[in-house]
Amino acid sequence: MRAVVLVNLGSPDSPQVDDVRRYLDEFLNDPYVIDYPTWIRKLVVHGIVLRSRPPKTAALYREIWTKDGSPLVVFTRLLADAVAHRLQDTSTVVVWAMRYGQPSINHVVQQLAARGDITDVTLVPLYPQYAMATTVTVVERMRKSMRVHLPSAQLVVVRPWYNNPSVIDLLARRLSAAIHSPDSHVILSYHGVPERHLRKTDPTHQHCLRTKDCCSVVSDVWATCYRHQCITMTERIAERVGLSADRITTTFQSRFGPDTWLQPFTDTKVAELAKAGTSSIIVMSPAFVADCLETLEELDVGTRKVFLDNGGTSFQYVPCLNADADWVDVLSEIITTTKS
């Protein structure tokens, strides 16, 4: 029997301060997220962040919380249920987990082990691009749990789908449906990462960020380069929609701390466009497959405010794929065609 495990980032159990603090503690203490020496990471997280940030973050979560819970959890559960239905005749059990929060990867692996019939595990990190703070940490945690609870099962990991034609076509159709004016500028906003992470995931340690055009120089490094994969995804979507380069921009959001992060920043670019006379923008985030705090609050609320406050007049946010039926079909096809 094969198990398919869909894994997303995670969410606190509730928007209450204590639950948010516990979630942030787990998230920010991951060495793949804040990759400082342990003593520095502990000092930053426990000495600074957890003393001030939980009440502010909890307030933001309360703004987007639904009667069914966290949007990210709700959409991930719906997606897993739909994929399970789609694959019901393939001797496959489909489950879902969160890297941080509940249900944890370890808990889900224990449940699979208790069945006694799982021989293969297909891991689906729900991230279109490869990154240390997303793909790598999910894979490593899965391997650790399986070594203990499913040591004889084979693990297969679904690769990033940033350039998958079916995914590009699906996103392009959603974006096209939102474009009602030839004067609208499109922002494709991706989650930011520190530049240091790109250098760490560069297997050659000689390519990423060494030159301004590094992402355009053909290299095996592209397989693990987050920035290249984001830029490529934007280019493919633009080609499919028929947008010229001056009408679409790749940006990066959600930066944290004093590190040097990938640019341009979403909020900065949006403000610049508004001040330069752009009256209408459309924002979509292909880095997220499910709407969450970073999209519903940071983009649809926070970035909208930045744009309007700086002179813009029309702001449109395009929702994530969530549990859209076409996305279920595409993801199911990606899963079934992934080989050992």
Question: What's the arrangement of secondary structure elements?
Answer:
Layout: E1 2-11, H1 17-28, H2 38-64, H3 71-86, E2 92-101, H4 105-115, E3 120-125, H5 132-149, E4 154-157, H6 165-178, E5 185-191, H7 195-201, H8 226-241, E6 248-253, H9 266-275, E7 280-284, H10 293-309, E8 314-318, H11 325-336
Parallel strand pairs: 1-2, 1-3, 3-4, 5-6, 5-7, 7-8
Helix pairs in contact: 1-2, 3-11, 4-5, 6-8, 9-10
Strands ordered across the widest β-sheet: 2-1-3-4
Count of all domains: 2
End-to-end C-alpha gap:
15 Å
What is the CATH architecture assignment of the largest domain?
3-Layer(aba) Sandwich
How much helix, percentage-wise, in residues? 40-55%
> What radius of gyration results from the CA coordinates?
20 Å
Uncertain parts: none
> What does the average pLDDT come to?
96
Overall spatial form: globular
Highest-level CATH class of the largest domain: Alpha Beta
How would a crystallographer describe the biggest sheet? 4 strands, parallel
CATH fold descriptor of the largest domain: Rossmann fold
Helical stretch tally = 11
